[in-house]
Amino acid sequence: MAYRPAFRAFSRSLSFFRQLPSSSYFSYSTAAAAELPLAASSPIQILRTKAEVRHWRAAQTLAGNSVGFVPTMGALHEGHLSLVRSSLRMNDKTLVSIFVNPSQFAPTEDLASYPRDFDRDVALLSELEYTPAETPKRIAAPEANVDESVLRTTTKVDAVFAPSVEEMYPSGIPLAVSEQTGAFVTVEGLSSQLEGAIRPQFFRGVATVVTKFLNIVQPDRVYFGQKDVQQTVVVKRMVSDLCYGCAVVVVPTSRADNGLALSSRNAYLTDQVREDAGAIFKGLQRAVDVYRTETDAGKIIAAVVETVAEKIPVEEIEYVCINDLETLEELERVHPLKGAILSLAVRVPNSFGGKTRLIDNVIL
Ligand code: AMP
């Protein structure tokens, strides 16, 4: 773990950030272990087992339907729904998974208290639909002689995959990595910096569960949010290196009115903290402004820190970093033709008397 004590020593001095080419500084989160959602009554098919999903997938293949897949941990919000809408737009059939994946939580993290509301999630998904604005051109040709209104079919979420932990980890899944046995997927070189430095088992857990899902669902397209930018880099690399045939589609971050990136964990926060946390995106936007005339990473990062620190104590800023878009290498200068990821993590007080980590990013 790459804790940088130098940050603590100097954290009260903003001038410190100006001396940095780019920077990272760290700490933690909390909790124990929990269990699963119960069934809901809904028009959406609820699939519980790998066999049911494989059966569903085979039917789509036979029917010639493309399949979009949106993996989530539930507690759905507009951010998740924007991924689902993208899938509805681009695919004949959409499958959403709801599974709180234990292997990406450390024993000290919030697996037990992670928000779960399966019935509400399914109700939200049931309300979504997409109707193409135009009849597809290839079918709409006048000579096709068909009723075009019939072809403008509305798509809705077809199925939810909500497996049990046993279904996904038949041999069990202790949270401590040292106690785990069996097959896990690690994407080397991309999993130990940024979020991976604070949560060393996180991307191994993510890569493992995404691998399982891709093998079960075999989607044509899989959807991830820009909000978790390192996750998108890890998954894209994994999909490429392990020769999966699906496309990875990255959907822009959905935000609250004050710019705060939507997150299931925002439910842990008071209204006041949520309001103050608007400073995070303000800081990122300020950095984007600075980047118009400045490529020095230290100066761009300083702009973020100064703005965020107006509302969040500077010692609660875990890292602000500028990294290469594919290799995640830390950059001292942003190459204007290549761009970069500017990402951060901060800790804010939550309603339970502890701290909640918030992450965000923009692409420069
Ligand atoms: P989670 O349920 O937190 O694992 O998130 C499931 C998917 O939703 C991931 O691909 C996230 O990146 C994505 N996601 C979460 N929050 C947002 C957001 N505010 N905007 C866009 N995508 C998001």
TrEMBL record:
<keyword id="KW-0436">Ligase</keyword>
<comment type="similarity">
    <text>Belongs to the pantothenate synthetase family.</text>
</comment>
<dbReference type="InterPro" id="IPR014729">
    <property type="entry name" value="Rossmann-like_a/b/a_fold"/>
</dbReference>
<comment type="pathway">
    <text>Cofactor biosynthesis; (R)-pantothenate biosynthesis; (R)-pantothenate from (R)-pantoate and beta-alanine: step 1/1.</text>
</comment>
<keyword id="KW-0566">Pantothenate biosynthesis</keyword>
<dbReference type="Pfam" id="PF02569">
    <property type="entry name" value="Pantoate_ligase"/>
</dbReference>
<protein>
    <recommendedName>
        <fullName>Pantoate--beta-alanine ligase</fullName>
        <ecNumber>6.3.2.1</ecNumber>
    </recommendedName>
</protein>
<keyword id="KW-0547">Nucleotide-binding</keyword>
<keyword id="KW-0067">ATP-binding</keyword>
<dbReference type="InterPro" id="IPR004821">
    <property type="entry name" value="Cyt_trans-like"/>
</dbReference>
<dbReference type="InterPro" id="IPR042176">
    <property type="entry name" value="Pantoate_ligase_C"/>
</dbReference>
<dbReference type="InterPro" id="IPR003721">
    <property type="entry name" value="Pantoate_ligase"/>
</dbReference>
